[in-house]
Amino acid sequence: MFDETPISWEDFKARRPSDAENAARLADLVRRARTVRAHGWDDYRYVWSSGEVAGVAYLLDDEDVLRDADETADSVLSRYACDLFGVTGGHDDIAAGHPGTRAWFDHARQEAER
Asked: In which region does residue 97 sit, left (phi positive, over 0), alpha (psi from -120 to 50) or beta (all else)?
């Protein structure tokens, strides 16, 4: 049983993930991208969630996987914007053309190259 008071929709929309949460998200995406680079998609493409596959494919600039998943760069960026910045912040980032989300993926690409 949970002891916490339920969060309201307004509080949920306003909540922004912590830096630690986003660092963990970045580390996970980078790990998955390195795994695909090392071993290919075969063991992962139909095991990981559609969002995980889309994020890794976008990170690796894998247009074939994005197309097969019926995703575009814009759909991946929109999907991740709310994960990274919360509902309200994500919608703001989407409306501005995804600058924060693009910067986050640029950083993830740099990390994946190390």
From this structure: left
